[in-house]
User: What shape does this take?
Amino acid sequence: MPSKEEEIRYIQDGADEIEKYLISTGTYGQALGYPGKDLTRLSLGGLLLIQKRVDGFNFPHTQRMRVEAANQRIAEARDRWRGHWQQKAERELKERLSLWSSYLADYFLDPGEYFQEYAQRVQWRVMVQLLEGEAAHPLNEVQQSLSGLDLRLQSALLPGPFIWESDVEKAFPVKEFWYLYGSLKATQL
Assistant: This one.
């Protein structure tokens, strides 16, 4: 995962670009120079994920103020462009669910090949959860698909410690983000 400073920069750059992004037609915006393989371009899922992670950080007051100012600008853009925000959230929600579903399908075909990618790929599952809260209305097909995927995931998940950095753990309580607390089996029985 990226450094705290890189995540803060993603939020600030996202705040600078959010209005142009919301009125654009694509699911993904311009590249922000973020080093994470899947989060180089602005997207609502990426932004929501990084905002959530940064909520768990302990950092100096000046950095906290910069983040809060950027988050305020993002919230204002969301309110001003609510319809665009919801449309992008729904579109990206389906795309991230598809990525998550494909990863799990690959894992169940060849656990030994894919189990080690879980800590990186599970960000798609987190994004799906965060994006669901931004959609204009519940998407039944997404909820049904996610329920099925979660049942399969539970059969392969070995409960354990939080899989990301410990300084973001408090932003992801186990009750809500259970899938971040463990690892996948290297083989299926």
Remarks:
- The first strand starts at residue 157 and ends at 162.
- The two ends are 31 Å apart (CA to CA).
